[in-house]
Design goal:
By secondary structure, the chain is an alpha+beta fold. It folds into two domains: 176 residues, Cytochrome c-like domain (Cytochrome Bc1 Complex, Chain D, domain 2), CATH 1.10.760.10; 97 residues, Cytochrome Bc1 Complex, Chain D, domain 2 (Orthogonal Bundle). It contains nine helices and six strands. It has a two-stranded antiparallel ribbon. Strands 3-4 form a two-stranded antiparallel ribbon. Helix 1 packs across helix 5 and helix 6 packs across helix 9. It is globular. 48% of the residues are buried.
Length: 331
Amino acid sequence: MTKMKQTGLRKMTIRKASLNAVTVMGLTVVACTPSGSASSDTETTAQDPELLIPSTATLERVGELLYDPMADSIHPDPRMASMIRLGFQISQDPQTYASEFVGNDLTCGNCHLNAGQRDRALPLLGVAATFPQYRRRDDRLVSLEDRIGGCFKRSMNGTAPPYDHPVMLALDAYLNWLSEGFAMGERPAWLGQNEIAVEARIPIEELDVNRGEELYNLHCAPCHGLDGQGIDLILAKPGPLWGPLSWNDGAGAARIWKLAGYIKHAMPLTAPGTLTDEEAQLISAYVNSHERPEYPDKESDFPDGTRPADAVYDTLVFSTHPLMRSDGRRP
């Protein structure tokens, strides 16, 4: 079903589309087929939750899009429309469209579910309008291109595309298309919501990784596998959560509370949002108790000296990984 919605900021076609293959913590979107169209004159605001796929949407909706970049007439300039579509394709399948900059089997869609259009799954709607922004990890003002490059270097364990490279320009175009109508500096309410409240955070040394493994096996292994490398579900193929083809130890997901905030609200896709704060942190501890690629420049992060207390791979925070066994294996 397709409908037209006028947001008061812009008019856009909201489509439900089926993706032939999808990216969810390692699921790759390859192609998209819109299902039809209809229209409505409903007025909404930039903060309206109906602008996003709900966080409670389950596995059968992993291929749904509200804003379909493959639709007709997404931009009056066909050259710009082509770049928007390329950016979407790169975000869902960088191994095909940006292979020279990718060093693992993950994609942008691994974290930004439904192509960045899902609530509580690091949505990208409106995000381009929030840049430039100050980032504590860099201790400086960063651009959207800086942020994209950081994802390539850390989450995809690769290298940042040059600012004028077609890969960077296309991703820039897609993110700006998702942000049309948002005022510069406006921060949509749905950004920054994947967090574990400070008062609910369990001290790293008190996390029971063995219990985390039990919870992982119960809630996560049916899709991600006991080995964390992903099971082909036909509808979707989860990617590696640890090991050489996963994110490196400089990525945000390599931090316990950071990853737990994502797990808490976005996983498992069979019942998202049903895990407790404690369960999410225990699962995060188990996922991040494994070996993963090393980011070579971690020491340059957080130059103001206030390094995050959950960065278990950071030797400036923990001299040795606090979850490692004496035999080199993880609990």
